[in-house]
Specification:
The chain is built from ten helices and six strands; from the N terminus they run αααααβαββααβαββα. The protein has two domains: 1-74, no CATH class; 82-201, CBS-domain, CATH 3.10.580. Helices cover 49% and strands 15% of the residues. With 203 residues, the chain is of the alpha/beta class.
Length: 203
């Protein structure tokens, strides 16, 4: 697929999302234009929008209203701050806990990642991908492996006082999809690349 065509399809997807159009209709429309479902889904995966598509229309409306309120209060030229869009409070677990407890916590809270702490200090992170690649892919069980064996460390963090684009740049440079956020050295929130894509779709 030519780069120009790829860009147009991506632009169509983002605009459709911002209007709250269901994913089924987006796929259907692209199919009518000759884009296969496989190609569309690959692009969605690349854009890390799977979770985004599961959001209810009311949630999308809330996100848009939040952006509009910030613009009205601080002006259109306001640089968006990461603290305005982070997920908080953050879910974490101590490093010495069994991996089974971490998996159970992720399932109960329906989250795709978990920050790992040691004496309440953030030291790493585990994701669903870590569980797939480092545990299930090797036919291991949660009883055979420790959290420390699969977590990504050292943990790359940001500050809640940073601008959204600064955090996005830092995430790209470090090739990470999730960034825990600190305030006065205390873990207070997290933001993901999917969050940023969703926010930018409304800009």
């Amino acid at each position: 697929m030519k780069k120009e065509v790829h860009h147009k399809i991506e632009l169509y997807i983002r605009k459709s999302i911002s209007k709250g159009i269901p994913i089924e209709k987006i796929i259907g429309k692209l199919s009518e234009l000759g884009v296969s479902q496989e190609t569309t889904k690959e692009m969605l995966h690349h854009l890390e929008l799977e979770k985004y598509f599961l959001l209810h229309t009311e949630k999308l409306t809330e996100e848009k209203a939040k952006l509009e309120r910030i613009h009205q209060e601080l002006g259109k030229g306001h640089a968006l701050m990461v603290r305005d869009f982070m997920s908080s409070p953050i879910i974490s677990i101590e490093k010495h806990q069994p991996l089974s407890s971490a998996i159970k916590l992720m399932d109960e809270r329906d989250i795709g990642s978990l920050v790992i702490t040691e004496h309440q200090i953030p030291v790493g992170i585990i994701t669903e991908r870590d569980l797939l690649k480092k545990v299930l892919a090797h036919n291991l069980t949660a009883q055979q492996i420790a959290i420390a064996d699969i977590m990504s460390s050292p943990l790359i963090t940001g500050e809640v006082t940073e601008k959204l684009l600064e955090v996005e740049t830092k995430m790209k440079l470090n090739n990470i999809r999730r960034m825990p956020l600190l305030e006065n050295d205390k873990l207070v929130g997290i933001i993901t690349s999917s969050d940023i894509i969703r926010i930018m779709a409304f800009m």
